[in-house]
Design a protein that fits this description.
The chain is an alpha+beta fold. It folds into four domains: about 5-115, Methyltransferase, Cobalt-precorrin-4 Transmethylase, Domain 2, CATH 3.30.950; about 135-200, no CATH class; about 210-375, 2-Layer Sandwich (Heat Shock Protein 90), CATH 3.30.565; about 390-450, Orthogonal Bundle (Arc Repressor Mutant, subunit A). Helix content is about 35%, strand content about 20%. The chain has a six-stranded mixed beta sheet with strand order 10-9-13-14-16-15, with helices on one face. A four-stranded mixed beta sheet has the order 1-2-5-4. The longest helix is centred in the middle third of the chain and has 15 residues, at about 150-165.
């Protein structure tokens, strides 16, 4: 492996110039508790080679680091080539167990940093971990012949393009590596969902239903029962995503603006926002929940994408933008290599940015115990939103939408919008918007409120 094949520092990659056992242990725990990743030792934070790390030293430090983890995090490592010598890549798999450090801290990977969890977050993550590795479980009755060779070949080709190197193993060896086949060669849930000829033969609820309603409520013309169009999509997940995207695109209205001599078409919803909502629903739904498929409902004023299963692990509506945790990491990794996910952990940010820049309200997220809904509204304003609206977190976007609807917002209003966030965090949110010239603070003490400047 060579350094250019690795991703920049982020949720899945860390660079460490040295091999201190305590620092290694923190990274092992954070990656194992989140979505796994790669720790590159012998390279600084900017990706520049740092001399002085040797294989024997790394092996010794890694063993010491593993002893600082509760339970130990089992990893492998290999030497890699860098511009000025050699470094070492430690591959940390996502663990089905909850890991902590010897001092009791439970860490997760957030962006390019390791963050400690609080009590309630630890309990939520532990509950998710206790569900077991559903993706890697073999499906009774399924055989290797139930996988589609053409779909597998397409995946292998896309994976090679993403990694910029040819596969070093056979197709079946690769399928075992990514958890699509067991060691005995039997398809797993991951294998059937990604590559199955007819996955719904074994997982009936693994499809998607699209329904278009002519008005703003479920029903047909004139308030009668019915709908304008209904489509069902089955097959491997890549085909489900593409089928859903094609039908939504075909049903979207398209307008145009003329700037100078150029005519530019503008779709009803930003394409990236729609595709991201569809991909997230397919990636992150809880496939253990039977009896309900993903639903895409298109109304005159909005598009709803409803995915069975609540938010996973420590994810809440308030940290949805900043943090990342996958319920189905193998499916996410598969669709990432396929090219359906551009950059892990950044899709929600861009979805919000594209919607706001197109003059729409930010997406609305609704989390319930057994479902998660993303709603895109098509109420485009005449004037596109200013650039600064794309540089804010999801809480601030909700506050801005509240002000547009109500005219002003108070600290109490903001706390009601974000009940699970500390008052200090919310105060800093509002101060940030004031300091950037987005909001204007009016009044003092208990009479303070904020308006758009």
């Amino acid at each position: 492996m060579t350094l250019p094949t690795l991703r920049p520092p982020g949720p899945l990659t860390a660079y460490l110039p040295g091999a201190a056992a305590e620092t290694l242990a923190e990274h092992l725990v954070a990656f194992a508790n989140t979505d796994g990743g790669t720790i590159v030792v012998g390279v600084d934070e900017k990706g520049r080679p740092a001399a002085g790390v040797y294989p024997d030293e790394l092996e010794s430090s890694l063993k010491a680091a593993e002893r600082l983890c509760r339970p130990p995090v089992v990893v492998g490592w290999e030497q890699i080539e860098v511009e000025a010598g050699a470094a070492f890549a430690i591959t940390v798999p996502r663990s089905p167990e909850l890991h902590s450090l010897a001092d009791g801290r439970v860490l997760i990977r957030v962006g390019a940093e390791n963050r400690p969890l609080g009590g309630e977050e630890i309990r939520s993550l532990a509950a998710t971990k206790s569900a077991g590795d559903f993706e890697a479980e073999a499906i009774p009755g399924a055989q290797r012949g139930d996988l589609d060779e053409d779909v597998i070949a397409e995946y292998v080709e896309k994976r090679q393009q993403r990694q910029r190197r040819p596969a070093a193993q056979t197709a079946d060896e690769l399928l075992r590596e990514i958890g699509a086949l067991t060691l005995a060669g039997q398809p797993t849930h991951t294998g059937l969902l990604l590559f199955g000829k007819i996955p719904q033969q074994f997982i009936p609820h693994a499809g998607l239903v699209f329904v278009k309603f002519p008005g703003t409520t479920p029903g047909g013309e004139g308030g009668l029962a019915g709908y304008g169009r209904r489509e069902e999509f089955n097959g491997p997940l890549a085909r489900v995503i593409e089928g859903a995207w094609q039908v939504v695109w075909s049903e979207m209205s398209v307008g145009a603006v003329v700037t100078g001599l150029e005519r530019q078409e503008i779709s009803e919803y930003p394409p990236f926002a729609v595709r991201e909502a569809l991909v997230n629903a397919v990636c992150h739904r809880d496939y253990r929940l039977r009896g309900r498929r993903i639903e895409v409902r298109m109304y005159a004023d909005r598009l709803e994408v409803i995915s069975p299963g609540g938010l996973p692990g420590f994810i809440t509506l308030d940290n949805l933008v900043e943090e990342h945790f996958s319920r189905n990491p193998r499916l996410v990794a598969g669709l990432f290599q396929w090219g359906y996910i551009e950059e892990l952990g950044l899709g929600i940010d861009r979805m919000i940015e594209d919607m706001v820049n197109a003059g729409h309200p930010p997406p609305r997220f609704k989390a319930q115990p057994f479902s998660f809904t993303v709603t895109l509204y098509n109420a485009r304003e005449r004037k596109a939103a200013p650039k600064w609206e794309s540089v804010m977190n999801e809480r601030q976007a909700r506050a801005l939408q509240f002000i547009r609807e109500k005219g002003r917002i108070t600290s109490r209003d903001y706390q009601d919008l974000c009940p699970d966030v500390s008052p200090e965090t919310l105060r800093l949110d509002l101060n940030d918007l004031v300091n950037r010239g987005i909001l204007l603070r009016i009044g003092a003490k208990k009479g303070t409120y904020y308006v758009i400047k």
